Amino acid sequence: MDHDEDLIESAFFESTIKCIEDKEKLDENNKKYRTGTFPWDQQITDVLKTRFRYEDFRPNQRGIINATMSGKDCIGLIPTGGGKSITF
Description:
With 88 residues, the protein is mainly alpha-helical. It has a single domain, classed as Rossmann fold, CATH 3.40.50.300. It is built from 3 helices and no strands. Helix 1 crosses helix 3. The termini are far apart.
């Protein structure tokens, strides 16, 4: 390999490692928002039950609500009929 190929390979390797680290941090944050305890837990559960008449959140709903209520930007990718309205 010549010098340019070495530089390209090195840059690719470094960017791959950065992507893996970013994904691990994102996964850790996502888990925190899906399963963590927050001051508004009881309030959102009460609204879910009284306003929407559901006993439990669907997958991803609680994480989206917790991230948003924590002041974080959030993108929720949920299929049609997956319960996006509750997260608004």
